[in-house]
Write a structure and sequence with these properties.
13 strands; single chain; globular
Amino acid sequence: MEIRYLSQEEKEASRALYEEVFVEDEEAFVDAYYRIKAADNQILAVLEEGRILAMLHRNPYTFRLRGKCVQADYLVAVATRRAYRHQGLMRRLLTRALCDMEKDKQPFAFLMPADEAIYLPFDFRLMGNEDEEGLTSLDEKQLSEEYDLYIEKDEAYERRSIHWPEWETTPMMMRLVHLPSFVERLGAEEEQSLILAVTDPILESNQGCFLWEFTTEGSRLYPAMGEPELSVSIADLGSFLVGMLGPEELLAACPGGKQAELKRKLSAIRVLEGIYINEAV
């Protein structure tokens, strides 16, 4: 077996697996998906003698993260042929995709899970997300005033969009990928520093001890030695930074250290307060 990205000419061959797994999608939608999304996405696949056994699609999106333009991939069409399930193929695909996104310095990855439990072992967690239909009419200025993280509706977005009225959105999950890129726009109410130990079983560059220095506008991570003030998993850190875990809940999940001082520092961090993603694929 080999794992690699399909060439543009090979992408159409993945449609058979798509239709085998996502039987609820209408043929017209699948036609539109392969015409529009597959025009410039990346399809990572497990192949054996040229036959596609499993795949995931990396669909590119441009976000505004507190005013900064960042790239992040939407992982969709995660599928394995029935006869090859429970053999670790999806783990290999997700691990490879996350490592590749880390090399591209993408701050995070996101997906819409069919079952949340599938992605918890890969440190994806639910993210707070507003996706009410009425928000689609907001212009760039309104979005920037109300949301810390939202998709930029630029020319590339319009070119890649599939207008399909029958989608029912479900909660999104997110995973931190390139941690230094994510924290750049996360400042604090006052200048401060925190020695942080992060465990990440998949992405080695996120694993280790860091000096986390804050200004009121942003923050940076530096390699550090010594005893950490806070030890946290990449999953819990991600949940905290998108507002799904409060300081007290994070400290409860990561006991130890000087709790009162840590709570003060964590409470001062300007975590993301508004996220708006209303995409289906």
